[in-house]
Specification:
alpha/beta, Rossmann fold, 7-stranded parallel beta sheet, 12 helices, 14% strand
Length: 327
């Protein structure tokens, strides 16, 4: 059995795969694979372990319908055409649960960095502009007792709420398809409409999946309904916000600030205005970037891969419906 791995993954996962007797072909170039390259390598293998955002659409799947399993080194799977995978009975695995805390840490970090203009102030020092004290210059805003709005209150959103309630006594409101009863019990969280989320949030943190429904959900209209003193945080997927509209909102005082760990498009260009704004903080998609989390993700991705190659149910399938008996 052979697997094609699209980027270098932590050694703990690689060792587990090799110890299972699976031959590994790795992509080691420091650039993304094109889809033709992805297809070419995948055709030589029995399985695909996809790290990074590779376009696993219906065309790819039909070209590589022989694959016994596709294992994602990620929680998100918006780059995979799950309906097409279902039709071909290809199990797709992902790595849920292990990155909730670290990603919430980054959301919390961005909230604080934006509230105190931390990245911008650091850059002023780098440029030799820390000259003298002005009592009315470069003021931030305080977070204590403010309202945290969460768009998509799942595991990561829950962890963000826990940090904000514990550290700053923030009130929690959220917008979901269904109630999060645990958050309502633990944090007295209040489920609200999308418009109410926009209007009431002092900090609005995005933790939803990217889908047709959420694509560029945060656009000029949405930002226009937020408080001029509000902070927008996105650590989910860059495609959930319209970046030109976000830049406009920040430049024109429609919202107070923004913190991003994901951008639209991604990676971000070095001349993007967000990188030099006083009221913005941007990170290069590092939500899961801890040794512990990436090792855990590699372990789960390896487990999914090995199970699929052995004809067993994946421990963490994205599409468990393929296992439902048709009898």
């Amino acid at each position: 059995m052979k697997v094609f791995i699209t980027r270098k993954i932590p050694d703990v996962g690689l060792k587990k795969i090799k110890d299972a007797g699976i031959e590994v072909i790795e992509w080691n170039e420091k650039r993304p694979l094109s889809q033709p390259e992805l297809i070419e390598y995948s055709k030589q293998c029995d399985a695909l372990l996809s790290a990074g955002i590779n376009n696993i659409d219906a065309f790819f799947l039909n070209e590589c319908k022989h694959l016994k399993v596709i294992s994602l080194h990620s929680v998100g799977y918006d780059n995979v055409d799950i309906a097409a995978a279902d039709a071909l009975k290809i199990p797709v695995g992902h790595t849920p649960g292990v990155l909730s805390g670290p990603t919430a840490d980054v959301a919390f970090l961005l909230m604080l960095a934006v509230s105190r203009k931390a990245f911008y102030m650091h850059n002023k020092i780098m440029k030799g502009e820390w000259l003298f004290f002005e009592p009315t210059a470069d003021l931030g805003i305080e977070i204590k007792g403010k309202t945290l709005g969460i768009f998509g209150l799942g595991n990561i959103g829950y962890e963000m709420a826990k940090r904000c309630v514990g550290a700053y006594g923030m009130k929690v409101i959220y917008h979901n398809r269904t109630h999060n009863l645990q958050a309502e019990k633990d944090f007295n969280a209040e489920m609200v409409s999308f418009d109410e989320l926009l209007k009431r949030s002092d900090v609005l943190s995005v933790h939803s999946n990217l889908s047709d429904e959420t694509k560029e959900k945060f656009d000029k209209s949405a930002f226009g309904k937020m408080k001029p003193s509000s902070i927008f945080i996105n650590t989910a997927r860059g495609g959930i916000h319209n970046e030109e509209d976000l830049i406009y909102a920040l430049q024109n005082g429609i919202i107070w600030g923004a913190g991003l760990d994901v951008t639209n498009p991604e990676p971000m260009r070095k001349d993007n205005p967000l990188l030099t704004m006083p009221n913005a903080a941007v990170l290069p998609h590092i939500g899961s970037a801890t040794v512990e989390t990436r090792n855990a993700m590699a372990n789960i991705a390896a487990d999914n891969l090995i199970a699929g190659l052995n004809g067993k149910r994946l421990p963490f399938p994205v599409n468990p419906e393929i296992y439902v008996s048709t009898n």
